[in-house]
Automatic annotation (TrEMBL):
YoaR-like putative peptidoglycan binding domain sequence ranges: 85-194
Identification of the protein by name: YoaR-like putative peptidoglycan binding domain-containing protein
Organism whose genome encodes this protein: Nocardioides cavernaquae
Domain of life: Bacteria
């Protein structure tokens, strides 16, 4: 009896198991069918910005959304009552279709929730928008500038020894968060956007200005500040030092600020020449060279003032003194060095003459005045262009005749070559080293043959070096010409005699006779003929009656045709 019961129970258990297995197979098959039918499609009924993408494969849904957003035009925007348009590119907006579809539930999955979402139906999905913050801020800044009004920050101003407070003023501008939300919503919906201008408060308030005036501004201009250079006081009044003061905003407050370079310039100007070293030099006094002693000056480290000035200037009366460590600034040329130069006698002098013209009577004396008194230390090089400067009206020169390309024309500084030739010969006979000189292209009989020089700014220069062990002082003199007398130019070199200079010249060779021609040019200048030739000049360096060495200079002069100016023939009608 018991064995029969056990067999019946075993058969019943097998039936139950088989039944459950059958149900599982049936449900699994149905689930597999459901999964296969849903595939990776977006849940049914899903919409994005009004576009239905439910039931579509992700790629198809993304393509449909891209097409929809690509066809949208600019956003119509009203800012403070003014209408404008903004493109998605200007706002930095870009639609991410793939991320939006993924957010909507597109994609294959065995998750029961995923299958439930698909068959139960999707929802309205917000599109995924990427925003370029830099582009967005640039556009908002442009809108603020065009339609809003910048807030005026409170400020403290220093001027002419006084201080004034400038009240802040609220402005109008776009609220960044609200504006961003409104424009993003308009972009998604493809609808217009209305942007409100809101009050923009300044960072520096009136209370900040008052506090800055009380703590620094007003005390700063309450009285002078005294700089004590050891025993020498220098008094700075508020009118003098306020150009270097300011109060600048930092983290929402006004803080004292100092223009150290400007303050240093102010202090230097008050020290004046007394605070600067003076080089020793040599001058002619009563026809005799005299050493003018050098003088030390008072110097200081500007940081000694700038680092402490802001604290001192805000102190009360009686405490506004700043000690400054003074140092003695030595001159570059000391009195002892100037005496060692040995400038005591005239070692050369040379004189040339020039025909009367008004422009020469201006240009020649002007150039000589700029050269007169020049001192060359041993080893130093003289440059006529560097000493005289550019020949301009502002520099005291007028227009006159010059030679350009073998033809006579006009330019500022005509006649200065007379100065160059005279100075060159004075240096020649003083035995100074010829560094650079250029003879005229044409020979003029008022100049020594083969020993003359021309100059032209800035490329043609006269340079010579003092290669002697003594200093050289250059003295110039001029006697202006008159309609009945020639002008006289004299240049002398003062030093200690080092060389006895003699000179000889060879015969002219390669002689070229001039021609003649007629010019009808509007700027024609008549020109006398000049014979062209070459010549060698020798400079002999002698000491104690013996020749030490010689130099050779070769000069080439071009020939110049006789130029006759003639009116051009009238044109035939």
């Amino acid at each position: 009896m018991g064995r029969v019961t056990d067999e019946r129970q075993a058969r019943g258990g097998r039936v139950v198991v088989l039944t459950i297995l059958g149900l599982l197979v049936l449900v699994g098959g149905a689930y597999a069918v459901a999964y296969a039918f849903a595939a990776d499609r977006v849940p049914r009924g899903t919409t994005v910005a009004g576009v239905a993408i439910g039931g579509k494969a992700p790629a198809a849904a993304a393509a449909l959304l891209d097409q929809e957003f690509a066809t949208r035009g600019p956003i119509a925007v009203t800012v403070g009552g003014a209408a404008t348009e903004l493109t998605a590119e200007q706002l930095g907006f870009s639609f991410d279709a793939d991320a939006t579809v993924e957010e909507a539930g597109g994609g294959r999955s065995w998750s029961p929730q995923r299958l439930w979402d698909y068959y139960a139906g999707g929802d309205r999905i917000a599109p995924v928008i990427d925003i370029d913050d830099s582009a967005f801020e640039t556009t908002l800044a442009r809108l603020d500038k065009a339609h809003g009004r910048a807030a005026r920050e409170g400020a403290v101003r220093f001027a002419k020894g006084k201080v004034t407070g400038v009240a802040g003023r609220a402005g109008l501008g776009l609220d960044r968060d609200d504006t961003r939300a409104a424009l993003e919503a308009a972009y998604v919906a493809g609808s217009p956007a209305t942007l409100a201008l809101v009050s923009v408060q300044p960072e520096i308030t009136d209370e900040d200005v008052k506090q800055a005036l009380d703590s620094f501004g007003t005390p700063a201009v309450s009285g002078p500040v005294t700089l004590s250079f050891d025993d020498t006081p220098v008094r700075l009044t508020p009118a003098q030092f306020t150009p270097a003061l300011a109060m600048t905003p930092k983290d929402g407050v006004l803080e004292p600020d100092l223009d150290a370079a400007k303050l240093s310039a102010i202090v230097r100007s008050l020290l004046g020449d007394k605070g600067k070293p003076v080089d020793a030099t040599v001058v002619l006094s009563g026809g005799t060279p005299r050493v003018v002693p050098g003088k030390p000056g008072v110097d200081y480290d500007p940081q000694d003032i700038s680092e402490a000035f802001l604290s001192v200037v805000a102190r009360p009366s009686g405490e506004r003194t700043l000690p400054v460590k003074a140092t003695v600034a030595k001159p570059e040329v000391t009195t002892a060095e100037a005496r060692k130069w040995g400038i005591k006698e005239k070692v050369s002098t040379f004189t040339t003459y020039y025909p009367h013209t008004d422009y020469r009577n201006v240009n020649i004396p002007r150039a000589l005045s700029l050269i007169n008194g020049t001192v060359l230390a041993p080893g130093e090089t003289f440059s006529l262009n560097g000493t005289v400067g550019e020949r301009t009206a502002a520099n005291g020169f007028v227009e006159g005749f010059v030679i350009d390309g073998g033809l006579i024309t006009t330019a500022y500084g005509g006649g200065v070559s007379q100065v160059a030739t005279t100075t060159f010969n004075a240096a020649f006979f003083a035995g100074l080293k010829d560094v650079e000189h250029k003879p005229h292209s044409l020979y003029f009989d008022r100049y020594p043959i083969g020993r003359e020089a021309t100059v032209a700014w800035p490329y043609v220069d006269l340079k010579f070096q003092n290669d002697t062990p003594y200093g050289v002082l250059i003295e110039t003199n001029v006697q202006r010409s008159t309609p009945s007398s020639s002008g006289v130019v004299t240049v002398s070199m003062w030093s200690t005699k080092y060389w006895d200079i003699t000179t000889t010249a060879g015969d002219r060779y390669n002689v070229v006779a001039p021609g003649s021609r007629v010019s009808t040019a509007d700027d024609c200048e008549p020109q006398e003929p000049n014979t062209g030739f070459d010549i060698k000049v020798y400079r002999h360096f002698n000491r104690n009656g013996e020749r030490v060495r010689s130099e050779t200079m070769t000069t080439h002069y071009n020939s110049a045709d006789r130029v006759t100016c003639k009116e051009p023939a009238p044109k035939k009608p």
